[in-house]
Amino acid sequence: MDIAPFIAEHRLPQSYTSVAQNWFNPMADELALRQRSALGPLFVGVNGSQGSGKSTLCDYLAFYLKKTKALSVVVLSIDDFYLSRAQRTLLAQKVHPLLATRGVPGTHDTQQAQSTFMALKNSQEVALPRFDKATDNPFPESEWPVINTPADIVLIEGWCWGVPPQEEHQLAQPVNQLEKDEDPEGIWRRFVNTQLAGTYQQLFKQMDYWAMLKAPSFDHVYQWRCEQEHKLAARYGDTTNSNIMNDAQIARFIQHYQRLTEHALRMLPGQCDTVFELDSERAITKSFKGN
User: Fold this and answer.
1) I need a surface site. Which of 25, 77, 200, 225 has the fewest CB within 10 A?
2) Which of 153, 150, 155, 262 is nearest to 214 (CA)?
3) Residue 277's domain spans which residues?
């Protein structure tokens, strides 16, 4: 299969061809095989820290499965279900100021995610939510893509997708300066953990297959996240946009994600069907079955 169009569209290096052939095609073939015996669409969860390449992986799987297996594939991100800035501002006023920042469990519309999943499972027409990170708000509903044919495979990716909640004793001490200075009593992190333990786990249980792009450590996330934001700025052609972060803002921003990212790196590999281990340059060094 010629993946040159995919590489061109995503502005990827030519080396991605061998990466796809060696690592991703075998998993895609496995998903296609599992889909044959599924009673409805096969739901696939993909976890990976910020900047790990999970969005590109899902797009490639969809491309490959459509081209080689003639399967109908829907791609979603947990980011698609972020609450609006106004909703998060209200949450910040009621619970904790840190909830104004999108990202952690509790800042997504899980009811909307559940209704979207159910519509896809029941082959009903559904508009897929889309979030505009440049404006920090959902795109207008009129711009959401509409799915009106049955889906064979649904791919859902997210940085905290599939992560189990922490134990109470793990919440006692702050993990970084942000938690130490802005959440000294642990109100924010306990709220996040309670949300993660509730409706998020109900969503996770609907996944039929799990994959993970495993970063070497959280230390690499800053570098990767900076690269993401630089691409976002280039795409919009406006580095002065107040919703596009500079490197210093990113350094603070990613501290919101540190606790659960590190928890995921410890806990998730053993629970996934396929794990791709990444090095500091995001090259895959090996893959293994976690369960």
Assistant:
1) 25
2) 262
3) 4-282
Name, in order, each residue with C-beta under 8 angstroms of 203's C-beta and a sequence gap of 6 or more.
110, 113, 114, 117
- Please indicate, yes or no, if residue 227 is contained in any of the structural domains: yes
Total domains present in the chain:
1
Contact 281, 266 (CB under 8 A): no
- Here the tokens at position 189 are 């992190």
Closest CA to 165 of 74, 87, 259, 90: 259
CATH number at 179 reads 3.40.50.300
Question: How high is the pLDDT of residue 222?
Answer: 82
pTM of whole model > 0.90?
A: yes
Q: Torsions phi, psi of 61, nearest 5?
A: -60, -40
Residue 156 near residue 208, CB atoms below 8 Å: no
Instruction: Quickly tell me which residue has 């949450």 as its tokens.
Output: 91
Is 288 within a domain?
Answer: no
* Grouped pLDDT means (10 residues each) for the chain, 291 residues: 91 92 96 92 96 94 96 96 97 97 96 97 96 92 95 97 97 96 97 98 97 94 80 66 73 92 96 95 90 70
Flag whether 290 is in a domain: no
Residue 247: in which H helix or E strand, if any? helix 247-253
Name the strand (E) or helix (H) holding 245.
none
